[in-house]
């Protein structure tokens, strides 16, 4: 088993959360999202982002507006709907719970009595 496979799955599991967090800061263009996600090592291929945005839009969590661009065709800018804001709030609570759970598990003493170091 390769650790890279597990790492990819972990990132995929929180990708929607990260996308919603980016959009929650204000309307955003997909390529700017892609740039941020790539810089954060959350996504590596462009083909991953657009299907997720479509799924989130179809679920009623996102909306978009077209805006003219000075450097090409109009651009689609995404924003969160009220349902999207509510959904993100629930994900934030879940993320906090997951962090707490991991902290509890990692801090439990080993069988020999030594605590697991936390970076």
TrEMBL record:
Residues 19-89 form the Transcription regulator PadR N-terminal domain. It holds the Pfam family PadR. It comes from the Bacteria. InterPro entries: Metal_resp_DNA-bind_regulator, Tscrpt_reg_PadR_N, WH-like_DNA-bd_sf, WH_DNA-bd_sf. This is PadR family transcriptional regulator.
């Amino acid at each position: 088993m390769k650790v890279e496979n597990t790492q990819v799955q972990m990132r995929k599991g929180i990708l929607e959360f990260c996308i919603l967090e980016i959009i929650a800061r204000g309307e955003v263009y997909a390529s700017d999202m892609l740039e941020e996600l790539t810089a954060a090592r959350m996504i590596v291929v462009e083909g991953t982002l657009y299907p997720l945005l479509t799924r989130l839009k179809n679920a009623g969590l996102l909306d978009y507006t077209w805006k003219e661009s000075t450097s090409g065709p109009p651009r689609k800018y995404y924003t969160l709907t009220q349902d999207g804001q509510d959904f993100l709030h629930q994900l934030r609570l879940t993320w906090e719970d997951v962090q707490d759970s991991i902290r509890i598990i990692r801090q439990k003493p080993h069988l020999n009595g030594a605590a697991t170091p936390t970076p």
